[in-house]
């Protein structure tokens, strides 16, 4: 029997909420890049009313932990923490990149996914995933030739990705906004790829992945919930005449 999990995500232009009860999904989703704070709580109310339960009937609250828009990630985690504190619920943070991989599996059973979110500043948030039989997603590590390190989820200029990415057999499904934003650079990757309609993470996919984490006992208290930004610092050009 699955846990009763409410999931929400505001990390990208998309705003979504989902409630998962006994493998039944109640969901709301809308692309509303500047209205997350207006949309998210009414969506929460709607799915709870549709299912006929309250926050206090839930087992956990899941949220898209990032990466994504700095503001969007902060909005999502702040609202999730507020709901969690009020109902004394444990929290489960799910990668937005992994959620898009799960979205590709939900849409067309894709088990090999390359996810790329436009991170602005000529960079993308990137991860390459393979689905396991138990429903978990394994991140394919990429190597950094400069410092001999490897990483899974990362922020990287798309022009550098081809040089660091190893060729992988099979057909890989693209997900995210990065493919359209950096089409020419990403077309050079040593992968056989196909497009998909999955542009953003969805709360219903976060809820599915949160069930796996729930069964493994991977929950945190509200005060311990934290975002994943990947980018440690933001650089910008100063306006003329300003120091």
From TrEMBL:
It is found in: Cytoplasm. Gene3D superfamilies: 3.30.420.40. It comes from the Bacteria. It comes from Vibrio rumoiensis 1S-45. The keyword tRNA processing applies. One of its GO terms (biological process) is tRNA threonylcarbamoyladenosine modification. Pfam families: TsaD. This is tRNA threonylcarbamoyladenosine biosynthesis protein TsaB. GO terms for cellular component: cytosol. Belongs to the KAE1 / TsaD family. TsaB subfamily. Keywords: Cytoplasm, Transferase, tRNA processing. InterPro entries: ATPase_NBD, Gcp-like_dom, T6A_TsaB. SUPFAM superfamilies: Actin-like ATPase domain (SSF53067). The keyword Thylakoid does not apply. Residues 30-236 form the Gcp-like domain. One of its GO terms (molecular function) is transferase activity. Its main location: cytoplasm. NCBIfam families: T6A_YeaZ (TIGR03725).
């Amino acid at each position: 029997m699955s846990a009763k999990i409410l999931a929400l995500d505001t990390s990208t232009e998309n705003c979504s909420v989902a409630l998962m009860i006994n493998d039944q999904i109640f969901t709301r989703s809308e692309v509303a890049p500047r209205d997350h704070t207006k949309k998210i709580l009414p969506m929460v109310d709607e799915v709870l009313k549709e299912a006929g339960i309250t926050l206090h009937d839930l087992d956990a609250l899941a949220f898209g932990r990032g990466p994504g828009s700095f503001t969007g990630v902060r909005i999502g985690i702040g609202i999730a923490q507020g709901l969690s504190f009020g109902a004394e619920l444990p929290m489960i943070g799910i990668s937005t990149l992994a959620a898009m991989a799960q979205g590709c599996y939900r849409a067309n059973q894709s088990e090999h996914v390359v996810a790329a979110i436009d991170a602005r500043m000529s960079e993308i948030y990137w991860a390459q995933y393979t689905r396991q039989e138990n429903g978990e997603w394994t991140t394919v590590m990429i190597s950094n030739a400069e410092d001999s390190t490897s990483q899974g989820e990362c922020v990287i200029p798309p022009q550098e990705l081809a040089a660091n990415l190893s060729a992988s057999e099979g057909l890989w499904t693209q997900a995210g906004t990065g493919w359209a934003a950096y089409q020419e650079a990403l077309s050079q990757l040593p992968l056989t790829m196909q497009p998909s309609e999955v542009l953003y993470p969805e709360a219903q996919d976060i809820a599915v992945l949160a069930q796996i984490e729930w069964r493994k006992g991977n929950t945190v208290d509200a005060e311990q919930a934290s975002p994943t930004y990947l980018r440690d610092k933001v650089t910008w050009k100063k306006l003329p005449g300003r120091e």
